[in-house]
Inverse folding.
């Protein structure tokens, strides 16, 4: 794994415990992870091994019990609430197992949602959203609502939305877990192609060895520790 270039992701000694009525549940132990711009890594591990927890910490949706995280030289754990929301929206794209598209919005409107944080989307934002929808094969579907689309199409729209703000880090948590084989292949192929085109760091959690092998590197979570696969 490469050195922590200033533009890369550096996770140092991250631990995460959850409080329980009895003793704390230790989920992650001293996680260390360095990824440079354009690198992709699959985190493997069975259900309950802490994959989603790790992605949520790196995605700043939750805070580690101890340790540090830096992306592009910025430690998000030190930012105030406003700056953190700005950082998350600008630096990080999320693709979850479930698409989380808004049912009342078209695919174009859904793709534009991350841009809403900066006020009304302008013509450039619309142009980028349309280009992304085109890139994921949905050029002729941008006026459709999620209910009118297949699972694969919805997940491809979620990928377009995740890329809207040109994130330096894309976090994908079981992104093909709800899809049939053919759609899963399409989404995985697109993820990797676009990641290479945009030099994004891609961190993908999966229990699928087959999907993991498409990434440049693979690690697995065992007893809360990140180990070579
Ligand atoms: N908010 C939480 N409070 C308590 N325990 C949690 C919480 N989130 C996750 N866990 C526990 O942490 C462990 C890892 O969960 P998770 O990260 O979702 O695993 P995975 O994504 O690999 O299936 C599980 O035992 C889960 O029950
Ligand atoms: Mg999970």
């Amino acid at each position: 794994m490469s050195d922590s270039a200033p533009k890369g992701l550096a996770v140092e000694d991250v631990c995460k415990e959850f409080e329980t009525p009895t003793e704390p549940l230790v989920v992650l132990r001293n996680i260390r992870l360095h990824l440079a711009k354009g690198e992709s890594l699959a985190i493997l591990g069975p259900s309950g091994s802490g994959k989603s927890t790790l992605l949520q910490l790196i995605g700043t949706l939750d805070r580690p019990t101890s340790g540090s995280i830096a992306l592009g030289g910025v430690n998000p754990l030190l930012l105030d609430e406003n700056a953190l929301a700005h950082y998350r929206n600008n630096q990080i794209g999320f693709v979850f197992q479930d698409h989380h598209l808004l049912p009342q919005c078209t695919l174009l409107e859904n793709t534009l949602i991350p841009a809403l944080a900066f006020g009304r989307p302008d013509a450039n934002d619309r142009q980028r959203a349309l280009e992304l929808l085109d890139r994921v094969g949905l050029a002729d579907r941008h006026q459709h609502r999620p209910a009118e689309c297949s699972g694969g199409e919805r997940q491809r729209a979620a990928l377009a939305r995740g890329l809207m703000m040109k994130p330096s880090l894309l976090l994908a948590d079981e992104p093909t877990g709800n899809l049939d084989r053919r759609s899963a292949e399409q989404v995985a192929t697109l993820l990797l192609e676009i990641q290479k085109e945009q030099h994004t760091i891609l961190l993908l959690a999966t229990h699928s060895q087959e999907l993991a092998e498409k990434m440049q590197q693979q690690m697995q979570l065992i007893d809360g520790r990140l180990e070579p696969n």
